[in-house]
């Protein structure tokens, strides 16, 4: 505990060290926004760069909590069936919980075809894994907090793309600032943040209402390019030196990925895997995209259901939004009891939810009980 507190309260990781890691990852085939997000959150928030691999934890002391990380497959999450959504990663295996299809964790990211290993690739380190597990920006709902008041027209696809662009640039600037101590450099980033904020919050509602759908699309695309242009112009205007070199490199790596909007790219070990249980959204693609599981639910209970975990009783205090048991089929439960109690005060209502979940063993169904 003392070591963790010391790291979080320490000076952190210098931007140059973070960018050195990024330079190496940018050479890899599946480099994506997740890498940039992972390295900046590691350096700026966690205050450390963790080069370990999760598979190295397979022989850890059994008295320590066993880590099971959860993610979503982005395409199946948006368009596919239940079985292709939930993804879990532990020191021993990684794969789709509902499908019960896994590979060794050290092989996650390697190339497979019809279940056969074609090309072994390096295992992702903890920096990249943190990027996968914390990239809530990858989902459309992340733009809700940055929708300007004047944009009261329906938020269509082109408006979403524009707001996505602004949101990720805003957050990347904030994270970059957290790795910098030089007052002059911080001032330049503050100026850039204000330029982007002013562009997005400039009221253009009258203009939008007068345009056709095609003209709206063209205008939003132009505005997106203007945001990118503002970042590029900021980099060019800096005085020569280490900070300019770092910012130029970061913008060179990040901006094309922002335009592509690519997150969590990983080789798909189920590519052309001939099994009727594998959804089309997984079977037909050479790569899939892993994103933060909290986009669906914050309580990662799906990984603890079924015979494999051999759990009789799960007590899950849960207070997040969303449908708590969305990923649970009725046959997975003996019963699900939710007890709600609320306590009112002058300025708020506190709702406490205690959920006791008793999982069925050996495949029993509600009808058979």
TrEMBL record:
This protein's GO CC annotations: cytosol; nuclear envelope; nucleoplasm
Domain PLA2c: 28-136
Keywords: Hydrolase, Lipid metabolism
Record keyword GTP-binding present: no
GO terms under biological process: glycerophospholipid catabolic process
GO molecular function: calcium ion binding; calcium-dependent phospholipase A2 activity; calcium-dependent phospholipid binding
Keyword Membrane applies: no
Domain of life: Eukaryota
InterPro entries recorded: Acyl_Trfase/lysoPLipase, LysoPLipase_cat_dom
Gene3D superfamilies listed in its UniProt record: Cytosolic phospholipase A2 catalytic domain
PANTHER family tied to this protein: CYTOSOLIC PHOSPHOLIPASE A2 (PTHR10728), CYTOSOLIC PHOSPHOLIPASE A2 GAMMA (PTHR10728:SF39)
Protein name: PLA2c domain-containing protein
Organism: Crenichthys baileyi
